[in-house]
Amino acid sequence: MLVDRKCRALAGLGKYPYMCRFNEHLCVENVCARSPRRPSVGSMEPGIAFRCVAHLCVAHLNVAQKLEMGPMPSKSQPATRHIISINDLSDKDIETVFDTAQAFLDELPDPRVPYRIGRSAKIASNSILASLFYEPSTRTRLSFESAMLRLGGEVITSADPATSSAAKGESLADSVRVIANYADIMVIRHPRDGAVRLAAEYSPIPVINGGDGSHEHPTQTLCDLFLLKKKNKRIKNLKVAISGDLRGSRTIHSFVYALARFGATIMPMAAKGMELPDHVDRRLREEFGCEMVSAKKGKGDDSSLDALYVTPQEPHQQSLFSGPEIESNIGILDRKIDALYVTRFQKERWTDKNQAYPTIDRKFLKEPKYSEASVMHALPRVGELDPAIDKDRRAVYFEQAAYGVPIRMALIALLLNLKGKSLHRFEGGFERRPSPIYDQPRNVGASCANKNCIVHDQMESQYVRNKFYVLKTSAPNACRLRCFYCESDIEQFVVASKKNKWFSNDHTALLRADDQHPREHIVFPNKEAAIEAGFHSRRGMVAPGTPPRTRRRAKS
Ligand SMILES: [Zn+2]
Fold first, then answer.
1. pLDDT one-digit tens code per residue, 217-276
2. Check: CATH 3.40.50.1370 for 238-393?
3. Alpha helix (H) ranges present in 416-513?
């Protein structure tokens, strides 16, 4: 990174990384070429100013920041940090978000309500948040905007899709690049799964996912985890029941991943036909190590509970939320429930809008196993949670909603480096095995099977690609493709070689690619599609289970 070295040398900061006033960046390009807001000398703290030789803009480094800085981030770390999935945050990141949120609650308290932010700061007085909501939202949008205003920043908003540029036919990828010129950070909600990941690919400023289709809603999950931590002093070894529409609720998808990461036991209590999607279920079991355990229905138990996910205690869970060891997983079936998470029927994502749906009321909560359960809900409720229990000591959903402000203040402050701390320096994301990425143009080969994925949005067709993580499975010749945007999986496909013009149902060619980007291969949903595209079946097509040596001979 020549430009970066030049800048650092010019500033006489040989051993410190370059840093702009608003954020940390790996190279000058991210500050000067793309950032519309160049720091002005007059408003700076006393510190070190230097001029970029490539772009002739001035950047500053104050002494406090200089002393706190660690080593240069690794090349693999993105220059701009986005929060799209809860799994984009490492355990350490989540701990930092919670510490920062708690610091705001302590510094800016409302004397009457202990969980409410009651005053404002000025630390974001030079920053602007853009909120882009392509789908109706009141709570998420207002809590983000409130968080930015409480930090002393400004907010610009595009809340009505009917009047936004999308209605005029502008793509999300273009909108993001234009709006990045008006703001320092943006929050996006979109009806398409994976839309915010696409937006982040095109954004030079930090993007936060405010909910994308039925994919994820990571900031809601942070509020939920923060509440669980406040109420129980731990998350490890908690028993959390989740009731309602587990299929359409993005909040639940982010939430169960987080619970599994931190060693909680999850009791799915889905409404009929609204179970967790297969890909979420599979990830829980295969990637987070959850085991399905059958739960016997107790006497008088009228719930639809059939099974629960028990997460094994693993070393990575020990560091966060450490608290008293209650007991091991043995006996968890008989334990009382620590929290009951109620979710609404996501009518907007279902065609049959008159399905039977469970209601949580006083009678339901009379069961002894719920006697100590915090009743949580992301709100709004639409009839599944009886208002008669609002005054019950177990009802914590308004407190849960209040934490939306300090949590989002913390995220904004960390992404903009307003508190001398940032998420950049931490190693990014939940630990996962590095996977090759299959990447082909949108019109080549198989696309994501999820019809609500952003890949299928005509407006974005110039900007999306058929992009998948290639994941190895336990079957001998099989891989799984996970959509880069919406993270849903494809299991059934054939792999064609561009070079040899053959196709095969042996998936492992995708994993063998040396450069980690198997561009030499095209994936088709089935052999008919491969033949139609001019490929022929490989002679001696390999049956699943054939040892690799035999396969190589068949190829030659
Ligand atoms: Zn997808």
1. 999 999 999 999 999 988 777 899 999 999 888 889 989 999 988 888 899 998 888 899
2. yes
3. 509-512
* Residues 82 and 206: beta-carbon distance below 8 Å: yes
* 138, 174, 484, 485, 504 from 489: Cα distances, Å: 31, 27, 10, 11, 19
What DSSP element (H or E) covers 10?
A: helix 2-10
Q: Identify whether the C-beta of residue 89 lies closer than 8 Å to the C-beta of residue 97.
A: yes
Q: How many A from CA of 480 to the centre of ligand 1?
A: 13
Q: Which residues are annotated as catalytic?
A: 139-140, 168, 189, 217
Intrachain domains 86-218+404-415 and 238-393 with the same fold: yes
Distance in angstroms (rounded) separating the CA atoms of residues 349 and 273: 13
pLDDT digit string (tens) for 495-530?
A: 999 888 999 988 888 877 655 556 789 999 999 999
pLDDT of 74 over the 50 cut: no
Task: Give the CATH fold of the 86-218+404-415 domain.
Answer: Rossmann fold (3.40.50)
Output the CA 285–ligand 1 centroid distance in Å.
21
For residue 490, the CA-to-ligand 1 centroid distance in Å is 10
Assign 3-class secondary structure to 367-422. CHHHCCCEEEECCCCCCCECHHHCCCCCECHHHHHHCHHHHHHHHHHHHCCCCCCC
* Phi and psi, residue 72, nearest 5°: -55, 135
pTM of the model: 0.78
